[in-house]
Task: inverse folding
């Protein structure tokens, strides 16, 4: 199982740096756990990365689980209409 | 990007919008009745209103709203554009421009009472449409100091206040279906589309949001700088369309947006277009927002869906730019693209190119010194350097339109003050010249235009009596010629009254009582400091500073001004300006052990005089007979106090230069050493301004050479001659 932690600022620049780690984490189709407890700010870029990673993991027979999502993360996901999507992966 | 940056962009766009609006108004004045022309004014004013509201510029917002109301009536065909209304629109435009200048800190907030009342009267005269707007304006006016609800801190969360300003749609029954798909640009520079979504849903407490994930690619194809989400938002139909539109004002170019009433033919909500209905799931309400989600597991790298844009029902921006927006996605590469670049960066580039020119000269000199055969390579380097220089300078070049666009207003003002009637003709607005020149030419040009109308043109009665049309003609033109730009102001008025000019000049001691002057010399007297023939001082002219200021301003730019006037037929004032202030082609000459640079644009020929070609007229004064024309020889070394130079013109090299004020004059130098590009370094910046010198440059061997300004040199000598005679 691969484990990843999201940074406090999950903006576009952070996503550029994180993308290779997600590519490698979901490559094998094994479960991936993502710790979202430290996230203080997340925008469209961060949410897109997680959606892409989760859907890719699922297509490969694995799954992506978000752990301990912070209040800021939850709020952003709900604002983007991803509340239910997130519930299903928590 | 900080709020100050965003505000600065708003001000720039405000200025651009005003330029577009004025050009369209002028077209309308000339008879253009195309709907796109009035649309372009409406768009500009609408955008200004939106930005003003976002930044809390209440006065600008209120006034632009009034203006917009009338424009909307015209656009919708509720009233026709007669001469009276066009004049009213011009007055409104001028006031709007004043408001814009006020927020830039260039002037006080204008008193717009009279024009506002006029706009209200116009708006009232059609009716139903105007009423709601007036009520909204009255509500804002009641709280003039209240800040706009959307502060800059909320990242352009355009406020509800703006929404309340706009007319409520008479068919506000069905809900709005807003489809919003940000492009990658919306995420650049700290942009965050989730904020637009937040503000959008805050417009109505029961907003529904559906996210479309179909464009999200597989992680292997994922680009962190891309944008893959799209949202469809259902809003209560009572929300004003403009309130929705305004939220997207500043990212309109970076997103696909459609706003339609539910059930309208073009309403293609994301859920029905992209997903089967059973994939749409309603979620529990979160705070005041009801969220629904479309859970889609799309195939990897699903193609981007076509935007659900209906040409007839989208936002004004989208509706009114179908020709540019709709093809944009398909033909993005064909569309001209532009970016804003900090001027400091351009200046740095130009300076670096300047240093490169100097270094190139040093390398060339060094190679020649050691006898290396590198002519081909040096020629290639020279070519590339010139190319680079041209590119760098073209980046700083701007169309003169931005300066010319102020002229119609100046003319309107002077018309109103003098009672004269003027037909303004403008030509060559797209002529480009350096930004610094553009910025500094405004004031001289304003004086010239005011003088042309106030001094040049006769009153309508005088014109009729002289057999001329009642309406005077002022023609403003710009063109490139011989490495310079010529800007001319021509009027068909009375021409310069030379007798009166000479009389005034004698009265003021500028010319001696018995001194004989040519027509050209008399014309040039109007540039003398403190000279004016106006009978009385007015706001327009007659203070005796106008043309003096013009000449000083133009000379400071390395330019020249000349006059051609014919009594009873009119006058032409021509400014000859350098295209750039940074680099010039120069002739390197020597006097004694000093090297000097003569700008090639002034040089017409060089020669060693024959035995009988130079005639002496007393000590230190001689004339060159050049093909029957006698030109004064100026001993440059003596004038500049350079010792060791040749003193006899017969032994020297004579360089004939053309000046605007004195025609041809001859500069006497020892020898010609070289001819090359030189980088002009300002004396004013590094030392102080010196009459007769245009600046200095660094030569290939590292020596500093002064650049001669033949024009101001001859003017200086002429002035002292006149003063001595007087």
Result:
């Amino acid at each position: 199982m691969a484990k990843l932690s999201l940074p406090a600022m999950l903006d576009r620049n952070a996503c550029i740096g994180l993308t290779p780690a997600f590519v490698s984490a979901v490559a094998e189709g094994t479960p991936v756990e993502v710790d979202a407890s430290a996230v203080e700010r997340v925008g469209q870029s961060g949410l897109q990365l997680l959606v892409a990673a989760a859907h890719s993991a699922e297509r490969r027979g694995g799954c992506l689980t978000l752990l301990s999502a912070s209040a800021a993360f939850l709020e952003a996901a709900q604002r983007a209409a991803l509340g239910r999507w997130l519930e299903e992966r928590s | 990007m900080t709020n100050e940056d965003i505000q600065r962009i708003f001000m720039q766009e405000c200025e651009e919008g005003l330029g577009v609006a004025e050009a369209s108004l002028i077209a309308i004045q000339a008879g253009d009745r195309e709907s796109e022309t009035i649309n372009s004014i409406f768009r500009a004013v609408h955008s200004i209103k939106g930005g003003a509201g976002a930044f809390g510029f209440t006065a600008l917002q209120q006034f632009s709203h009034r203006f917009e109301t009338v424009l909307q009536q015209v656009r919708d065909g509720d009233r026709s554009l007669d001469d009276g209304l066009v004049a009213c629109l011009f007055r409104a435009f001028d006031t709007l421009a004043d408001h814009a200048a006020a927020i830039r800190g260039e002037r006080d907030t204008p008193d717009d009472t009279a024009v506002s009342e006029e706009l209200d009267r116009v708006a009232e005269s059609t009716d139903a449409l105007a009423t709601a707007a007036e009520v909204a304006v009255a509500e804002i006016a009641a709280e003039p100091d209240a800040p706009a609800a959307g502060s800059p801190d909320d990242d352009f969360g355009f406020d509800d206040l703006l929404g309340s300003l706009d007319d409520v749609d008479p068919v506000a029954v069905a809900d709005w279906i807003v489809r919003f798909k940000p492009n990658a640009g919306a995420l650049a520079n700290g942009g965050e589309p989730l904020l637009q979504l937040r503000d959008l849903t805050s417009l109505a407490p029961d907003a529904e949001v559906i996210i479309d994930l179909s464009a999200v690619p597989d992680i292997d194809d994922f680009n962190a700088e891309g944008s893959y989400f799209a949202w469809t938002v259902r809003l209560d139909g009572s929300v004003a369309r403009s309130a929705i539109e305004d939220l997207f004002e500043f990212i309109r170019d970076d997103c696909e947006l459609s706003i339609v009433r539910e059930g309208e033919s073009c309403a293609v909500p994301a859920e029905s277009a992209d997903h089967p209905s059973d994939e749409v799931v309603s979620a529990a309400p979160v705070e005041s927002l009801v969220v629904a989600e479309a859970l889609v597991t799309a195939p990897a790298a699903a193609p981007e869906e076509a935007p659900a844009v209906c040409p007839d029902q989208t936002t004004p921006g989208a509706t009114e730019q179908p020709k540019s927006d709709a093809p944009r996605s398909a033909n993005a590469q064909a569309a001209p693209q532009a970016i804003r670049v900090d001027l400091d960066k351009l200046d740095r580039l130009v300076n670096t190119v300047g240093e490169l020119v100097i270094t190139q000269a040093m390398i060339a000199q060094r190679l020649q010194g050691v006898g290396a055969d590198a002519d081909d390579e040096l020629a290639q380097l020279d070519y590339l350097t010139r190319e680079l220089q041209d590119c760098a300078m073209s980046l700083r070049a701007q169309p003169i339109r931005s300066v010319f666009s102020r002229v119609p207003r100046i003319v309107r003002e002077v018309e109103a003050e003098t009672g004269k009637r003027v037909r303004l003709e403008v030509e060559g607005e797209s002529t480009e010249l350096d930004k610094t020149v553009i910025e500094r030419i405004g004031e001289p040009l304003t004086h010239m235009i005011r003088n042309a109308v106030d001094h040049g043109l006769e009153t309508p009665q005088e014109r009729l009596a002289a057999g001329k049309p009642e309406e005077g003609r002022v023609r403003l033109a710009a063109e490139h010629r011989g490495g310079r730009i010529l800007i001319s102001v021509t009027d068909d008025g009375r021409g310069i009254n030379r007798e009166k000019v000479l009389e005034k000049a004698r009265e003021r001691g500028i010319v001696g009582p018995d001194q004989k002057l040519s027509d050209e010399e008399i014309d040039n007297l109007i540039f003398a400091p403190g000279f004016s023939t106006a009978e009385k001082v007015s706001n327009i002219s007659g203070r005796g500073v106008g043309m003096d200021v013009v000449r000083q301003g133009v000379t400071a730019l390395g330019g020249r001004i000349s006059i051609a006037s014919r009594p009873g037929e009119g006058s032409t004032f021509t400014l000859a300006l350098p295209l750039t202030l940074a680099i010039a082609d120069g002739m390197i000459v020597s006097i004694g052990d000093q090297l000097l640079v003569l700008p090639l644009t002034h040089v017409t020929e060089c020669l060693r005089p024959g035995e009988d070609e130079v005639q002496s007229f007393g000590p230190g004064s001689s004339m060159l007979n050049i093909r029957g024309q006698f030109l004064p020889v100026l001993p440059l070394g003596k004038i500049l106090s350079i010792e060791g130079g040749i003193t006899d013109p017969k032994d020297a090299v004579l360089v004939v230069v053309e000046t605007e004020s004195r025609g041809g004059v001859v500069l006497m130098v020892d020898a010609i050493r070289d001819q090359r590009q030189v980088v002009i370094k300002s004396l004013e910046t590094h030392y102080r301004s010196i009459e007769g010198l245009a600046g200095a440059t660094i030569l290939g061997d590292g020596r500093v050479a002064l650049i001669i300004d033949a024009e101001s040199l001859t003017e200086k000598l002429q002035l002292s001659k006149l003063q001595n005679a007087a």
Observations:
- Residues 127-172, 265-335, 535-545 of chain B have pLDDT under 50 and may be disordered.
- The interface with chain A takes residues 182, 187, 192-194, 197-198, 201, 209-211, 213, 216-220, 222, 224-229, 231, 281, 283-284, 286, 289, 291-293, 295, 297-298, 300 of chain B (CB under 8 Å).
